[in-house]
Every structure is written in C-alpha cells, then in structure tokens.
Amino acid sequence: MEASNPALKSPPSPLRADVLGVIASLTQQMWPGIPVVPTMSTGATDSRFLRNAGIATYGVSGIFTEPSDARAHGLDERVAIPRLYDGREFMYRMVKQFAQ
C-alpha cells in the first residue's frame, strides 16, 4: 500500500524574542509566576505547509488543564469553562499586541 499523504519535512520556526516576549508578558499579567516553556507538539499540524513556504508558525493556547484530567480527543473531551474564557482573553490580548 502506498501512502496517500507522505510526511513532509519542514524547518522549525525560530524562537523569536519579540514573539516570546509578548507571550511571556501576557502570561505574567494574567497568571503571575507561571513560566513560559516552549515545547513542540507531538500532534499533527498544517503549519508544516506554512513553514515550507517560509512563514514561521507558532501554536499558543492560554488554556490550562490538570495533568490528571487529560481527556483530549476522547469521548469525554472537555475544558473547564473558566479556563476556556481565560484562554480566549489571553488570545484576544495577544492578537491585539501583535496587530499593533
């Protein structure tokens, strides 16, 4: 059997100080004392196509979950309502800062 959508290598997006600075600043405003730690997602993403076109791509959520309550993509997947609203506020502020 031949793969219909073979893996596509793509370069990593650079850890830019201006991008990380906005994220770190907002994080400290909303959740004082929480560190920002860059990670790489193990899931699939369409960002590989953008990175191969020379467009740096980043994923940021601002939604916190309890490690003991990991239910992503299960039959009972959920996010606590207050955390969903906090994540929305974080994203709103972040987009406003990057749009200036």
Low-confidence stretches: none
Could you give the order of the helices and strands?
HHH
Helix-strand makeup class: mainly alpha
Ends distance: 50 Å
| Strand-residue proportion | under 5%
How does the overall form come out from the CA principal axes?
globular
Number of helices: 3
Q: What is Rg?
A: 16 Å
> Portion of residues in helices?
25-40%
The count of strands amounts to: 0
The average pLDDT score comes to: 87
Largest sheet features: none
Features:
3 helices; mainly alpha; 100 residues
Describe this structure in words.
The protein has 3 helices and no strands. The longest helix is centred in the C-terminal third of the chain and has 19 residues, at 81-99. The protein is globular. The protein is an all-alpha fold and 100 residues long. It has a domain at 14-32 and 45-63 and 77-100. The mean pLDDT is 87. Helix 1 packs across helix 3 (81-99). It has helices at 17-30, 47-52, 81-99. The protein starts with 16 loop residues before the first helix and ends with a helix.
Structure at a glance:
The chain has 100 residues and is an all-alpha fold. It is built from 3 helices and no strands.
Write the layout of secondary structure elements.
Layout (H helix, E strand, L loop, with lengths): L16 H14 L16 H6 L28 H19 L1
Helix pairs in contact: 1-3
